[in-house]
Amino acid sequence: xAGSASREETKxxxxxxxxxxxxxxxLDKLVERGMYPSRSEAIRVAIRDLLMKELWIDGVPVSxxxxxxxxx
Length: 72
Hints:
By secondary structure, this protein is mostly helical. The chain is about 60% helix and about 5% strand. The chain has one domain.
C-alpha cells in the first residue's frame, strides 16, 4: 500500500538529543511553515536522509552489498 509505514518505522523509540538553540529555532521555522508536522518528524526525515546517503548505495543497504560480495 502506497504511503504506509513499514513495520519497523512504526516501532518508535524515544531518543534524547541535545541541540544548540539555533538548530531548535530552525526546526521550529520548518514546522511553522508547514513543511513538517513536528520537530520530531523533521528530525526523523533528516536522519533517514543521512542514513540513506551514508549507508545505502543504489537503494541497497551497504551491509547487504557486503554480504553479497562475500558470497560471490
